[in-house]
Predict the structure of PucR family transcriptional regulator.
Amino acid sequence: MALLVSDLVAHPELQLTVVAGGEHLDRPVLAAHASELVRPGPWLQGGELLMTMGLLLPMDVAACRAYVDDAAAGGAHALALGLGPELPYQQAPGPLVAAAAEAGMPLLTVGREVPFIAVTKTVFAAQASEQRAAVECAFETQRRLTAAAAAGGGLTPTLDAWTRATGVRAHVTDPLGRVIAADGSGEQEPGGSSADLIGRVAAAGIRSSAVAPGLEVQPLGARRLRGMLVLSGDMGADARMLIPGLVSLLSLELERRHLADEPERRHRAAMLGKLLDESTTAEQAADVLAGAGLAADTVCGVVVEVPADDGPQAAREIAADLALAVPGGLIRNRGSFVEAVVGAGLDVDVVITHFAPGCPAGIGSPVPPRAARSSLREAAGLVEISRGTGRPARARRDRTSGLLLDLGDRSALTGYADALLGPLDTADPSGSLTRTLATWLDSGSSWDETARQMGLHRHTVRNRLDKIMQITGRRLDDGDDRFDLWLAVRARRAARRV
């Protein structure tokens, strides 16, 4: 508990007497400072007992009022005037007493035989005692936290011990922000704006942290981000002193879990190998997935390429991270590649972006479990496209051509499209001819469907297509010409997506 002005007054050795402001003796005293300046405010930090002998202070009401106001503006919590036979004053002067009373500032007199240093020593001895008590309390709380962690009950007992000791709620999330443990307060999700802070730490990694009023997020893990600690509540100095120890204990537990899960990760990697074996039948593949707990109706293959310069350890770490983030998924690493079969409902792009940022990755088509091998093969083929685009490439039955166009040189494709469609742009700045051509090509060369989609009469569509052939010099009944125009339209679409 902080030292109060009333506590100092209660010290008989100091011989302090209250002469004004007695109604405000509950103010804390953070330091004791002696000064004879008539404007001491700029030299104060706040919370001081300001002591003076009044050597330079004019004893008139205006001067005393200015002195007290300046001390109050600097943060002083009380004033003390030294008295003595060889000092200017034998009792508190009336103008100073009146100014202190008017400002509500406690004014004390110091006994004749008491030097200011005695008051200063008393204040700092009280602070040292308070700090020692705080450290002892912190050690005792840390001991309880360590005992809870050593008991082997996982994360929750440690979080419970923390919340009981500090009153600050605590949650642990995985690297994607999903809560995996909470204290016993009954709140299963962090409150406030924790999602934003969690996202910032998740993106920045193991060397980051984030703080907001009443919230704090700390990373957990040794060399890699294994999870995050979310603290919610009013964190005073005592609680803040304990945070590094709590982070260390929780990080050790998450690293222990990571090591303990290694045999299971190897087992699941072997299951993936069995799933991809050419001799495995469709029924056996379904059994493998069921045994892995992957009960999704559809699955998809995922392949991530880890830069060779990062070494094989990097691929193993990413495979382990993905295994943690993808419940039920089958994952293994082969050299510099990480292969996985996951439920098709998983937001794979988010997982890859978080755990393998910048790595080329392919995501195969959703398929029945028995066809997982084909989806993974498709994903492997998409890695080359991902290298060119700089983002994960996802197989989509309606965009196969778009994936191929992504491999082409952008300027060359744009030039190709302009060479074929430029005459239409010049003849029809409104773009209606080009839109008619694109709709006709997309509809399987159907006059009626083109007319329906564009809200035109079929004869109008025919007339526009005849005009397109005249302007471009290409025949729509010629396979090569039709393909060239189709490729030009698709190239322009691909350019607009960038």
Q: What stands out?
A: The longest helix spans residues 116-150. The chain has a mean pLDDT of 84. The chain has four domains: 5-114, 151-260, 263-372, 408-497.
